[in-house]
């Protein structure tokens, strides 16, 4: 609106200058008319702006009046929100107490009379402290000994430590080459060396 008023004022000023130069009254009257029209537009714009200010002031007053009412409602809502979690927690505790199983009665199992538990020998037997002469002799023999998978000793077939274990027959010479060592319980080196010497003498 202000741009229109400015254009009208400039046009009126231009026509006024033209009227003075040409000494024509018509241009002067047109200049006056444009000036009056610009004044009318200016008054209309002023009234419109004033009405907008009044509406904005009323809207602010309405918002200010509504804020206390909202603040009064908030405490009630917060109290209700605080009550709900408390009620939910109590309900969960009640359900957990109902679902918790009763402690099962435990009874000790006692062995029947006369029942004997047989224990298999566990662990590796000690290594035989072989005589160096026996070691030298046994290392060249093809006599059969037995080994157990994942155990480092070799044994004579009737060794008491073997029990029901699965054994692998192998020549004593090969057993030593593979890194097996003699069992201290059945003393295979001493027995095999003695047997070999007895056979050689006879």
TrEMBL record:
Keywords: Membrane, Transmembrane, Transmembrane helix
Composition bias, Low complexity: 103-113
Region annotation Disordered: where it falls in the sequence: 64-131
Skewed-composition ranges (Basic and acidic residues): 80-96
Residue ranges crossing the lipid bilayer per the database entry: 29-47
Highest taxon above the source species: Bacteria
Compositionally biased region (Acidic residues): 69-79
InterPro entries: Ada-like_dom_sf
Protein name: Uncharacterized protein
